[in-house]
Amino acid sequence: MSTLQLNLWLSVFFSWIPALIFFLTCRDSSSPAVREAHTKNMNFVLVRLIVGVVTAIPFVGWIVGGIASLVLFIISIINAVQVPSQIRAGQRPMFVMDNVTAPSWIK
Questions:
Q1: Which residues, 6 or more positions from 52, have their beta carbon under 8 angstroms from its beta carbon?
Q2: pLDDT confidence of residue 70
Q3: Alpha-carbon distance 92 to 75, whole Å?
Q4: Is the torsion defined by CA of 78, 38, 62, 60 positive or negative?
Q5: Is the pTM of this model over 0.85?
Q6: What is the pLDDT confidence band of residue 55, given thresholds at 50, 70 and 90?
Q7: 10 Å Cβ neighbour count for 56?
Q8: What is the mean pLDDT of residues 53-76?
């Protein structure tokens, strides 16, 4: 459980690198709910990575990508606060905007 909380908070500030490390190291050793949360977090940070690449496009990308990056950063903080308590309560992890922004690329 503590690895999930660490993963979520590190992913807020360092994007995809901690999410990938925790996804690869904790996928066999954790409970199904924690494993699902690691997978959803990995999918979400991939969306953040794509938005970060869009930010490199001059002018329009700077504006749209900058706003989207800020929104996704705030959503990441909300996820880092809410998901561990959902797991402790025995619920499935539900990320904010789970079905809208984070397609299930990784299963």
A1: 15, 65, 69
A2: 92
A3: 18
A4: negative
A5: no
A6: confident
A7: 9
A8: 89
The answer to whether 52 and 65 are in contact (CB under 8 A) is yes
Q: How many CA atoms lie within 13 A of 82 on its CB side?
A: 15
User: How crowded is the C-beta side of 53, counted as CA atoms within 13 Å?
Assistant: 6
For the chain, what is the mean pLDDT? 85
Tens-digit pLDDT profile for residues 57-67 = 888 888 988 89
CB 13 within 8 A of CB 2: no
CB 76 within 8 A of CB 12: yes
Joined tokens for residue 36? 């699902």
E strand or H helix at 43: helix 32-54
